[in-house]
Amino acid sequence: MPLVPMKQILDEAKKGNYGVPHFNVNNMEQAQAIMRAAEEVKSPVILAASRGALKYSDLIFLRNIMLACVEKYPKLPIALHLDHGNSLESVKTAISLGFTSVMIDGSLKEDGKTPTTFEENVKVTKSCVDYAHPFGVTVEGELGTLGGIEDGVGSGKVQLTDPNQVEKFLKLTGVDALAVAIGTSHGAYKFKIKPDPDKNLLAMDIIREIHKRCPNLHMVMHGSSSVPQELLAEINKYGGKIPPTYGVPLWAIKEGIAAGVRKINVDTDLRLAVTAAVRKFLYENPEAFDPREYLTPARDAMQKIIKERFVEFGSAGHAYDYTPITLEQAKKFYKK
Ligand SMILES: [Zn+2]
Hints:
By secondary structure, this protein is an alpha/beta fold. The chain is built from 13 helices and eight strands. It has one domain (6-187, 215-329): TIM Barrel (Alpha-Beta Barrel), CATH 3.20.20.70.
């Protein structure tokens, strides 16, 4: 079964010059939506679990839902990724659950709120790399802090990534991928006014500078849901009360991909799709009470938006470009 280290998926994305969406998984319907879309458009898959999702699912349920994806779709390359690990302990837990990739967010202290110093970040990140690489497991770090708070993670303060620190951070830690702060934020409330393609929305110059200095680094954009306006309108039409807000437009993400971003984290868009579909269904069918009846359109709505992301980021059509490698093979790579 091609449960692959995330590094392979990102290495291949670099070769093909495309981006791969990372989707957060919390329940079965979401996992099915991701996998159905991936199979439909033949995309490699990064299934991510946050600490919040693991807690919500008592670890074991989410682990088995993710493994069910691997069993049901044996030909698609799939990486199981821990999102925003906050300590070596959380990384150890994820690896014991069978994850093939972990993020250690050393930009924040273990509380997930207080920004760390560069040295503190290096220390915790390096300890996770030293632990994970002998298992063949990929490690993503973070330098700089994002705005917004999601699943309790975030300082609420933005500190853009300093390209001067990146080379040093890579040398000292050995991470495979790096989340960069370029002005995106977690959650639905990213921008108050509609992003203008003629104005600098994100700090793309930072991405370009990092890519120039560290061409082999896989950069990751967190907080990159696009917050489709039609989903907000649908939610509010059927009883929701979400204030006006804008996400990261696809054109900005594509700029990032062209400049060396290989992984794009998307979570809010799926939440909005589910909520819009459930609200609409229950509004139109007030007599309904079978969850399967409203979770079916909810799952379809997620699948639709996921498919769009695979296509827009360019990973569609690339699932079968390469022979999946195992963690065993990845172990040998790190030994060298
Ligand atoms: Zn994040």
